[in-house]
Amino acid sequence: MSVGIPVMQRRVRPALLAGPIACGCALVGAATYIAIIDPTAPGTHLPTCPFYELTGLWCPGCGLTRATHSVLRGDVAAALGYNLLVPFFLVAIVVGWLAWVRAALGRSPIRWVTRIPAWSGFVIAGVLAVFGVLRNLSPFAALAP
């Protein structure tokens, strides 16, 4: 019979943390850049949405760069005006990164995340699809960035 290693005696391999740390640094760098550079200013060299460039339609993610800039500057109302789903996108990024760090440290998954039903992915995809369609219809123009 094998005995589990107590939590305090687990060894963390630095190589397993390299990915989450590098990604975390990249996220902080990107957030700092977005906080400093105003995406709405003329001459700003930020990439545009490829879906919008190809189709002329707003995707569910359109406006997230401007919304993130507004959140980082403390203007939540403006952020919600650019993309109503910005809180959900930002929370998903943070929770995903934290789950990755916990896994790299050999810790158990975030409990409430593991309790999310499998079918919720279909609901999220449906919400994104409906949001993407509605923000392109004239009666719902307020949803466009």
Structure commentary:
With 145 residues, the protein is mainly alpha-helical. The protein has one domain. Helix content is 57%, strand content 0%. The mean pLDDT is 89.
Q: Strands, helices and their partners?
A:
Layout: H1 14-36, H2 50-55, H3 64-72, H4 76-82, H5 86-104, H6 111-114, H7 120-134
Strand portion = under 5%
Instruction: Please give the domain count.
Output: 1
Mean pLDDT: 89
Rounded to an integer, what's the Rg over CA atoms? Answer: 19 Å
Shape: globular
How many beta-strand elements?
0
How is the main sheet built?
none
Stretches where pLDDT is under 50 for at least 5 consecutive residues are: none
Q: Spell the H/E element sequence.
A: HHHHHHH
Query: What's the tally of helices?
Result: 7
Helix/strand/pairing class, anyone? mainly alpha
Q: What distance separates the N and C termini?
A: 60 Å
- Percent of residues in helices: 55-70%
